[in-house]
Amino acid sequence: MVAGESKAIETVRQTLEEYAHKGVFRKLTFAEHGSGISASFDWLSKLRPFHFTVDLDQNTLSFEDFFPTFPPEVERDSLQLLNRFADNETPAHRRIDPEKAELMIAIEEDGAASLVLELRGDDFEYGVRRLINVVNEFYHSLQVTNAEYSFHAFGGFEE
Question: Phi/psi of residue 17, each to 5°?
């Protein structure tokens, strides 16, 4: 890795470790892969750890297979929520700044889907924090809009 890549990876690592230190994430582990790193940790789901991936070649951050399956009703509601993150009516602290990043849902061949944030620069701290906030909103929104799916996908609800 070159110096810029090392700085990006270190920024991502430190930001995720901050969440772990605060007790938000549990069992945080890192692994290098290809042109970036991946992290696994327990958070929100009672069934499986979350997998966070950084791809420096693509300049993306993602929660791999956030949706273990992606049925039409979940896709419909998720795309509506996805669009709200780009809407000027959404408060700035909850919006994705289009000059900094673009939020996408990547549907995999196996039927799972990932939340992906493509950065338009090198503000990896912004990207990590925004994507974590997005995942939190998706998780809580699914509990309301698709409670049965959420229960089966994540293993129950927070109290």
Answer: -65, -30
Contact between 42 and 20 under an 8 Å Cβ cutoff? The reply is: no
Which position has the token pair 């909103």? 137
pLDDT tens digits, one per residue of 129-149:
999 999 999 999 998 999 999
Provide the residue type at 104 as one letter: M
Domain covering 3-154: architecture: 2-Layer Sandwich (3.30)
Could you tell me the residue ranges of all domains in the chain? 3-154
Model confidence, pTM: 0.91
Helix (H) or strand (E) holding 119: strand 113-119
Residues 6+ apart with CB under 8 A from 120: 59, 99, 100, 101, 102
